[in-house]
Amino acid sequence: MQIAENVTGCTPSNTPSPFQLRELKLALPNALAKSQAKGSKLAPLQFRSLVRNGHYNGTTNGQCPGYLQCNLVVLRKSEAFDFMLFCQRNPQACPLVEVCDVGSPHPPESLAIGADLRTDIPKYSIYKGGVLEKEITDVVKEWPEDSVAFLVGCSFTYDSALLQANIPLRSVEEGKNVPMYRTNIPCCDAGSLKGNMVVSMKPIKGVDVAKEVLLTNKYPHAHGAPVCVGCPQSIGIQDLNNPDWGDAVEIRKDEIPVFHACGVTPQNILIESKVEFAITHAPGHMFVTDRLSDEKVF
Amino acid sequence: MQIAENVTGCTPSNTPSPFQLRELKLALPNALAKSQAKGSKLAPLQFRSLVRNGHYNGTTNGQCPGYLQCNLVVLRKSEAFDFMLFCQRNPQACPLVEVCDVGSPHPPESLAIGADLRTDIPKYSIYKGGVLEKEITDVVKEWPEDSVAFLVGCSFTYDSALLQANIPLRSVEEGKNVPMYRTNIPCCDAGSLKGNMVVSMKPIKGVDVAKEVLLTNKYPHAHGAPVCVGCPQSIGIQDLNNPDWGDAVEIRKDEIPVFHACGVTPQNILIESKVEFAITHAPGHMFVTDRLSDEKVF
Fold first, then answer.
1. pLDDT 10s digits, A46-61
2. Contact check, Cβ <8 Å, A233/B214
3. Distance CA B244, CA A182 (A)
4. What is the CATH number of domain A18-153+275-292?
5. A193 DSSP 8-state letter
6. What one-character-per-residue DSSP string does A30-90 give?
7. What's the CATH number for B156-269?
8. Mean pLDDT by 10 residues, chain B (298 residues)
9. Domain spans of chain A?
């Protein structure tokens, strides 16, 4: 009973002991049933447990509002330096949040208590030689011994702040994944890695664009302000109704498409650079952390 | 010689004595000829002198870059309280920079050394009963004894900052006045004053919009961030090629119209509220101050 209440009120500062974590796993189904019956939102620890146990494999936009979400890239150690350099040179597309120790699937506890990156993401993509081989819901067997796991900030992080500012999210409203597009905006090369930026798109009312820019600019660790507002063709997007990843959404008369750098950029880079082996999250299916979205805001 | 050099280097901290001001007037033609021959930009004091002496009656966009420009509204004392309340309630459209003492055409020396609001603006509009009666280049005879002169911030103020950020200004490039449009965005009423906001429009590249928003947001005393980006019909603008004031400008394929609250809003309010008597600047023809644009930036 004590534990179930802890679960509901989970914050980064409530660090359960290993014993509590075991108990938690047992207590979770009840806690989840209780919180869902109340229509309340899940805390990240609950959400990750649900994912780990195979009860959720959908997209994470709109999930655990107010918490930082991350893109995942797992490479072999031999490719890790180039990718780290790539992130350093392309901070808007690839804002690096954490990097795990070699071989470890566990991010620091300060980011996500008791997390396992092999199981706690709803869906993964496996790339071989730059080609998508398969999408699966856990990567325990695929995880390489000499792995380096990178967690890259994601724009879902500020969904909650946008909603609080009365800026609705069409993808969430329509129950869809966000639309993502390849662009002609080149990233800075790093070693063997090169390619163009991928952007996500939100339809925003013309009268709300300034507010959206000012708000998202406060989240540099989650791609920050938009890279383009309107003018899709000027960044190489020919047809908004045919996204390269995710689902097309309605753009209303009083709205304009607003494009943010997207954490699928690394996947595009891995494809274009024909990297030998990589595990990533499947587009739109993020790793939900215990860190508050605003924690790094300045 | 000494004085002419002072003129060229004029800043708000260089306060000339009345004697120097007289000398200045004599020295100006030479100083102007010299600075124009060099292709250099005029300092505000030089510019105002040129205007006062009837040598310039054009628009002020692109003039004296880096200095605060202001819209002028002159009312009789009986209307002054309502207008002041209107500015207080509509700070984005009417950011109040200074208000002169009753009867005085002189703003504080800290804003503009030796300035006379009856002569130092390139063109004025006279309104009677909410109808534009005439446009003239000085208002010495029209200035009422019980005048209250209001100086309201103007978006030309950040022209220089936009240019420095590599955001070009189409109106300046095309040698035109900026296009201004009536909108359906209501202002907050104040006493007898009511009406809708007027906006100015700049074509901005889609990839530059975020930069433009973040930059202009630093100038709340000059209308701040845009009120709408794209979607002109959503704010009641039917035809961008037919502005209500100023001149239409080209919008290129990779650009989007960006709308800022405009200091012509008071004129629209005076018209819609049928104010008995008012003097204003003619749209696009501003009062150029000695105050640096960045002085109030936070």
1. 999 999 999 999 999 8
2. no
3. 40
4. 3.40.1640.10
5. B
6. HHHHHHHHTTPPPPHHHHHHHHHTTS--S--TTSSTTEEEEEEEEEEHHHHHHHHHHHHH-
7. 3.30.2040.10
8. 33 41 45 44 89 95 89 94 92 93 94 96 96 96 96 88 93 91 96 95 97 94 95 97 96 97 93 95 94 70
9. 18-153+275-292, 156-269
**Residue B143 has which token pair?**
């200035």
The size of the A-B interface in CB pairs under 8 A is 87
CA distance B195 to chain A (A): 19
Helices (H), strands (E): how many in chain A? Answer: 8, 11
Contact B205 A235 (CB under 8 A): no
CA distance B290 to chain A (A): 29
Residues A214-232: tens digit of each pLDDT: 999 999 888 999 999 999 9
By Cβ distance, the residue of A206, A232, A233 closest to B228 is A206
Q: Calculate how close chain B gets to A225, using CA atoms only, in Å.
A: 6
User: Are the Cβ atoms of B227 and A207 closer than 8 angstroms?
Assistant: yes
Q: Cβ B253–A230 below 8 Å, yes or no?
A: no
Query: What pTM value is reported for the model?
Result: 0.77
Q: Which of A211, A163, A223 minimizes the C-alpha distance to B209?
A: A211
Of A205, A207, A235, the CB nearest to B207: A235
Q: CA neighbours within 13 Å on the CB side: how many for A225?
A: 20
